[in-house]
From TrEMBL:
Limits of the Ketoreductase domain: 13-199
Keywords carried by this UniProt record: NADP, Oxidoreductase
Family annotation (InterPro entries): CblAdoTrfase_CobA (IPR003724), KR_dom (IPR057326), NAD(P)-bd_dom_sf (IPR036291), P-loop_NTPase (IPR027417), Sc_DH/Rdtase_CS (IPR020904), SDR_fam (IPR002347), YciK (IPR049572)
Superkingdom, natural source: Eukaryota
Protein name as it appears in the record: Putative oxidoreductase yciK
A GO MF term: ATP binding
Glycosyltransferase in keyword set: no
Taxonomic lineage from the root: Eukaryota, Fungi, Dikarya, Ascomycota, Pezizomycotina
Amino acid sequence: MHYQPQDNLLKNRIILVTGASDGIGRVAALTYARFGASVILLGRNEQKLRAVAGEIQSHGLLPAHWFTLDLATATSAECHALANKLATLVPRLDGVLHNAGILGDVVPMDKQDPDTWQAVMQVNVNATFFLTQALLPLLLKSESGSLVFTTSSVGRQGRAGWGAYAASKFATEGMMQVLAEEYKPHNLRVNCINPGGTRTAMRASAFPTEDPAKLKTPRDLMPLYLWLMGDDSRRKTGMSFDAQPNQAQQERGILIVFTGNGKGKTTAAFGTATRAVGHGKKVGVIQFIKGQWPNGERNLLEPLGVEFQVMATGFTWETQNRETDTAACLAVWEHGKRMLADATLDMVILDELTYMVAYDYLPLDAVLNALTNRPANQTVIITGRGCHREILDAADTVSELRPVKHAFDAGVKAQIGIDY
């Protein structure tokens, strides 16, 4: 994942990590602490937990708390007792990373040992559920809580020999999806992360002949682990992320934002729209704050079946009649909502939408809800300066245009075919 977090990404956040004594859990705990979090370590080996806490302290970071809990035998009562202890220690939890897990036997179903099957389900499913249930009250006290489960590719597509482990990860994915739906109205997002093949002891036990030097290290995966715990992912919930995607295989609509103070935002949007129309795609356009003069993009695309809805009020920020302009904006937005709900539209352009949000002509929540609930295969392009942070967070692709030179500054007026 190409993500460059700010050094203080997790400042003032309290994050609990299970399986924190080894492997990915240990590296995640150290990384969270390095980016400002107060970390709570959970594992079954007291000596190793002490060592991780000592390593955190040796770097001059916030002291880590640690607790031993053996998920192989943990009961609901024990998990609630731990949560009660935590409640006397910290005011809330801002994040929980469920990293602990066991593999079981990699053998065909008819050779799966029932006791091993039960052991895998206990650690990977039952105890994970018990602990989640116990920690939910602390998570819900956070203004931006993040609950992250660890999954696997075999938890999405079954693979021969991976019986108990695969079944447990299918259950994990289901648990994540249910929790995400239940807590959508709250400040808690719930997601899964699939670390993929990583240089860990569990991986070595599953593939003893594999060359570990060819595998990613836990540290290589940390950008995604950080992103899911920080506020940059705060509008993502109910999703399963791959820390090591082999290649881009997913087909779905995306949200693109062209913002910044440079020239070319609308031009980029309509260049993309022209490409889509050229491939037989169906496109709809909403234009805010465009005046009543004709523009080239509309002259070209409207005869090709592209619907345009234009505010067309000659709108300026020094308007003498805000009520009239607000009404005009809301009227055009009704068409925007219609387009965003139309599964037959492959692409919707919301040209200059950012200004409507920035100047309170449109409520942010209404825009985000329409974007979130649009058809899965619909791509949306938003243009305009000063795009709201929450829209940027929701976007898949963001390009910021920066001015270097502009002809207008040299006294050249706007020209037909170039500027409109």
